[in-house]
Design a protein that fits this description.
The protein has 359 residues and is of the alpha+beta class. It contains 13 helices and 7 strands. The strands form 2 sheets. A 5-stranded antiparallel β-sheet has the order 4-3-2-1-5. Strands 6-7 form a two-stranded antiparallel ribbon. Helix 5 runs parallel beside helix 8, helix 8 runs parallel beside helix 10 and helix 9 runs antiparallel to helix 10. It is elongated and about 90 Å long.
Length: 359
């Protein structure tokens, strides 16, 4: 059997295991490498919730894979057609089997899910693909090739610099050299790969870059996903039964569970024994509310102890860059920019681990 077919079969076999591996690593990291805690999370955490978090966090990776390997494969086909063998090269096989609508969908998805500072790179990859495809499909139309390979990238670069110019200067002045490079380099680099490269270097260059991307991208995806919350954060106000018995206004039901041993009034605990447990809400059973607190300790809170609970919203990420384009921060995606903002409300004091009415 040909090498490309064997590699493709192995890839299709191992590819579904990668999301599962990411999910297991996320639970392992969330449990602080404690096997009992991890098994508890596996038992109660919703697989649909985990997959939803995985999809939202890594949706940007699909355009990266499709566009990067699409450019490399088409560059190999145009520069060294004698070495473009779909039966032996996995890169050539993927290029030959990828329809045009997948490329268009990847560009549209990237425009919605990539941060603004990466959109010039998306423009560069899209124009490279268009130029390489036009040269391959219409080699006998020089005017069309000239328009797609020279005029269109040049016009796109002029338009990009007219829009991004103030942001590039601001990023350079503020010392954000990486942001300045991401905004300034891709529009000019669009003119570099609109045609073939020397055939003697094309196979080594394209396959070497493909292997590099295939090795680095899973690591980046794993690093991103390990920071994504997969459980809702809740603040639960509890009142142990023994503390409630000492209060005439409280219910008089007895409880065999002893009260907390720490002294009342310490660490936010009220004199009547009330406390706030802040952490990731795992599940609520018939008898207990199970919470993974901030020390990665699983706490089983009897339901008759629970006075109230509130869902704590995820804290907004602190902006790293001060650069914006027409009021659009470079760290936001088009979806973030277009979606309505959540109304700003005063945070619940319990989400800070404090009881209502305490200083």
């Amino acid at each position: 059997m040909a090498g490309a077919r064997q590699a493709q079969q192995w890839l299709l076999t191992l590819l579904p295991a990668f999301p599962v591996l990411l999910l297991v690593l996320r639970l392992w990291q969330l449990s602080q490498q404690d096997m009992s805690t991890m098994l508890l999370l596996v038992q109660y955490v919703s697989p649909l919730g985990l997959l939803s978090a995985l999809l939202i966090a890594l949706v940007w990776a699909f355009p990266v894979v499709v566009l990067t390997f699409g450019v490399l494969g088409r560059l190999l086909r145009l520069s060294a057609p004698d070495r473009f063998d779909p039966e032996r090269s996995l890169l050539a096989s993927g290029t030959a089997r990828t329809p045009g609508w997948v490329i268009s969908a990847a560009v549209a998805l990237g425009a919605l899910t990539w941060q603004l500072r990466f959109l010039p790179s998306l423009l560069m990859l899209g124009l490279w693909l268009l130029a390489l495809r036009t040269r391959y499909l219409h080699p006998d139309q020089p005017i069309r090739i000239l328009f797609v390979s020279v005029a269109l990238p040049l016009a796109a670069a002029v338009l990009a610099y007219s829009v991004l110019g103030p942001a590039i200067w601001t990023a350079y002045r503020e010392g954000e050299l990486a942001t300045a490079a991401l905004l300034a380099v891709p529009p000019a680099a669009t003119l570099l790969l609109t045609g073939p490269i020397p055939g003697w270097i094309a196979p080594a260059l394209t396959h070497g870059l493909a292997f590099t991307v295939a090795a680095v991208l899973p690591v980046v995806m794993g690093a991103v996903f390990l920071r994504v919350p997969v459980l809702p954060t809740a603040a639960i106000e509890v009142r142990p039964k023994k503390a409630a018995e000492s209060d005439p206004a409280a219910p008089t039901a007895a409880s065999p569970t002893p009260a907390p041993t720490r002294p009342p009034g310490s660490d936010g605990t009220a004199q009547d024994g009330r406390d706030v447990v802040l952490g990731a809400l795992i599940t609520v059973t018939d008898t207990s509310t199970i919470v993974l607190d901030r020390t990665a300790t699983v706490r089983f809170l009897p339901n008759d102890w629970v006075e109230s609970q509130v869902l704590c919203p995820q804290a907004a990420a602190v902006p790293y860059s001060l650069v914006s384009v027409g009021g659009w921060p470079v760290e936001e995606t088009a979806l973030d920019w277009m979606m309505p903002r959540r109304p700003v409300a005063d945070p619940d004091i319990r989400c800070e681990g404090r009881l209502p009415g305490t200083p």
